[in-house]
Design a protein that fits this description.
The protein is mostly helical and 370 residues long. Helices cover 69% and strands 4% of the residues. The N terminus is likely disordered.
Length: 370
């Protein structure tokens, strides 16, 4: 009895077919890194030719990392949702809600006379925790009521946005404690030209010569790095992470395997909302205010980062490292265009083209693998 080669498993495929499939799979995984390196080289040359600046300076690298933090934090949660064969269109507005709530808490606690050292952490924690509510509702609607994720999260996004506007009155929430900006824009490690390194705080003698002070590891970058490592560990090394892949790979098989699918879906959406909440709290710290539209631009940027990183919108495929690369690509484009003095709307055109290229490469690779 012969085996139909159109349906035979990969392990029974001819060696040449397996070899080609492996090469194509490797290309699909590597191409975001190649594209990222190409973007860096392109902007390095362009910056030198157009305005005689060094794109790969310490300040340039720090700028790219800072730009990437907001995108990456939101995209991390979106990665989990997309791998589970879902989508979350509310994360950008969730970020704004977190920023508004955090700023409001800090504003009133500071006005009441509480110490800024207590106000800042409690305010940021409050902004993060409030995001559990929309995250749970999203997960409950998808898992229990079976509302399509696109519809449920889109509706929830507008509800969150309206709530944030009502709380803030439609204006940025100002009058924040004085140490908030120092935390949001501070660094764990500073490099002082000709003098070496300083930790946590710039020496008073150097405060007047900020051109000689370079932040090596900013607070927001450090926090984002920690959160990324936690997400990588959860997705790659835990049973919960394997359940997420199972949901997106074959939902019915996951049910038959005894996975508590409803619970897993709800937790995935809660985690996505909390990660957006962390991004919102850090936004409030960086800009010393809270705004309902703080994450509006990240609404689709986060999905773009996940897609560029190699995740499949059909679920079951993707990883944290790919999302990191996707976020860095978008941040490099944003920072590079700003450094070249180009108008901001070119960012959306460039990111859109990169997303289209990513989808074409992915689909082309899948077609050839068949």
């Amino acid at each position: 009895m012969t085996v139909d080669q159109t349906t035979q498993p990969e392990s029974l495929a001819p060696p040449k077919a397996r070899s080609r499939a492996e090469r194509l799979s490797a290309i699909r995984k590597v191409w975001p890194w190649v594209f990222f390196i190409a973007m860096v080289l392109l902007f390095t040359v362009a910056a030198r030719l157009m305005n005689d600046t060094n794109f790969l300076s310490l300040r340039g690298i720090q700028g790219i990392l800072t730009y990437s933090t907001q995108i990456l934090l939101v995209a991390l949660g979106e990665t989990l949702v997309i791998i589970a064969a879902g989508i979350d269109l509310s994360v950008g507005y969730t970020l704004g809600l977190s920023a508004v709530i955090a700023a409001e808490i800090m504003k009133y606690m500071y006005a009441a006379g509480y110490s800024p050292y207590l106000v800042v952490p409690l305010g940021m924690l409050g902004g993060i925790l409030i995001c559990i509510i929309p995250g749970y509702i999203n997960g409950w609607l998808v898992a229990k009521i079976k509302v399509p994720p696109f519809i449920s999260t889109l509706g929830m996004g507008y509800a969150i946005y309206g709530t944030a506007l009502l709380i803030s009155g439609g204006y940025p929430v100002a009058n924040q404690p004085p140490y908030l900006g120092q935390f949001g824009n501070g660094s764990i490690i500073y490099y002082i030209a000709g003098k070496g390194f300083a930790f946590f705080k710039v020496p008073a003698a150097e405060s007047g010569s900020l051109q000689q002070v370079f932040p090596v590891l900013t607070n927001v970058v450090f926090i984002t790095l920690l959160v990324t490592l936690v997400c990588w560990y959860v997705l790659s090394k835990t049973q919960f992470g394997q359940h997420i892949y199972a949901l997106g790979g074959n939902f019915q098989a996951a049910v038959r395997a005894g996975i508590r699918t409803d619970r897993t879906v709800i937790l995935v959406y809660i985690i996505a909302a909390v990660l957006a909440g962390i991004a919102g709290a850090l936004w409030a710290a960086r800009f010393t205010s809270g705004a309902a539209n703080a994450g509006e631009a990240l609404q689709l940027m986060s999905i773009a980062a996940v897609v560029i990183g190699g995740a499949s919108l059909f679920g079951g495929e993707g990883n944290i490292i790919g999302t990191v690369v996707g976020s860095l690509i978008i941040a490099t484009i944003q920072f590079g265009l700003v450094m070249l003095g180009m108008q901001p709307f070119w960012q959306y055109l460039a990111v859109g083209l990169v997303v289209i290229i990513a989808v074409i490469v992915d689909q082309f690779g899948r077609t050839l693998e068949r």
